[in-house]
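Exercise: predict the fold of this chain.
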Amino acid sequence: QVQLVESGGGLVQAGGSLRLSCAVSGRTFSNYAMAWFRQAPGTEREFVAAISWSGGGTYYAGSVKGRFNISRDTAKNTVYLQMNSLKAEDTAVYCCAATSTFGISRATAYDYWGQGTQVTVSS
């Protein structure tokens, strides 16, 4: 079993930045590709970014490419999402997820999920 716990969400003005963290425990962190998804009220869960088990590969949704950066620290068993130039449409609950295969944007492919952290961007 893998446990994922997100933190770092909050309220920020448009144009600002936030860094989300996802602490992973329970199994070998380096065995899993990790990703961030988000879900706004009344919408479906949306893929944001993914990172390979080694950290050498990353993959972004078009809506965040160039503004968001995903990274991982194996020593700390933590995945990060640095979010810059935030927009009102980035407002959502952000969840991290783990899977055995890198590069998948389909939420159903992910085996483990955190509870999420709220990000609210005021315009």
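Check your answer against the key: The longest strand covers residues 18-25.
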